[in-house]
Amino acid sequence: MAHGLLQSHNKKEDLEDIGMRYLKELLSRSFFQDLTFGMVGMETFYFKMHDLMHDLALLVNSDCQSIPKRVRHLSFAAANALRNDFSSLLSYLGRLRTIFFSTDDEKTSQSFVESCFSKSQFLRVLNLRESALEVCPRKMGNLKHMRYLDLSRNSKIKKLPKSICELQSLQTLDLEGCLELEELPKDIRYLVILRVFALTTKQKSLQESGIRSLGSLRCLTISGCRDLEHLFEEIEQLSLLRTLLIHSYDDRKNTRPRLRRVFIKEITQLLELPQWLLQCCTDTLHTLVIGDCPNFMALPGSLKDLEALETLAIRGCPKLSSLPEDMHHLTTLKLLAIGGCPALSERCKPPTGEDWPKIAHITQIELDDEIIKSSDI
């Protein structure tokens, strides 16, 4: 995608779908082999180059100290290569379209990275994943043709230069695992054609981050944000979003999003809440609001595990007809509001409604705007 190789006669077809079609074609022709799948629900695959293709690649590539002028795609296989004197290569950097730096514990040469940014003005793909980079070059905004930028797992980066928001051609930005990143640049909203965005940040709130203005987003990943308490509103502006993934960066460290309030509104396709949404905040979530989801049918049984829940509001969900059996375990629940759910409201009416015993302990209950106090029953 970054190199403009995906073509289709159907202008309405998403580039991601075209790419998937290409991938399946290459697999069917044995160009790739040993296909394995990534995370469930994510269109992520791992595969190897066919043995014969690999042998051919070895023939046309060599361990060299000079770059032929015709080369457009460059990968440094090891960090120690970056400590060599590559001053003779700098004059050829202007022709490069791709640079992959090594994945290594050793520190990548900051000066060489700076040179790449200043001289590779036609660069489209730059992978600095796990390169031990500490400071991003300020001249990043000069790379006007950049489509794919991977800065993931650079745990020492604290700030991004403002110029990153000048990359108007950027389609993919990966900041996952940048554990010390203090905040996103204020003008991130100007990356209007960004399709894939993965981030880790120390921010407590993403409300003012500008993410909601990224109307071309297809995939948004928020991971390892240990201090995150508030996402952002108006997610409906991300009308092309296909995948939203929120998870801890390293489960072994027992880090989880500490969500306190979750509002879900006007999602026509929503049938039930995903289990992970409640499992990640069992001891912090105190407000859950579900509104105007006409096909929403069931609350999960794990609702009983929300030991801090104080407010539960459900409105405009006509297909929701009953409450989970263990609702009486929600001893912290102080307010239950139900409206626009005819069948559910009928089951919750005191004292004969079938679901009334499940909720009789709640201090205040609102059924279709009628306030009912359990102490009065």
UniProtKB/TrEMBL annotation:
Name of this chain's protein: Rx N-terminal domain-containing protein
Keyword set includes Repeat: yes
Biological-process GO terms, alphabetical: defense response
Domain Disease resistance R13L4/SHOC-2-like LRR: 117-251
Keyword NAD on entry: no
InterPro entries the record matches: LRR_dom_sf, LRR_R13L4/SHOC2-like, WHD_DRP
One family name in Pfam for this protein: LRR_14
Keywords: Plant defense, Repeat
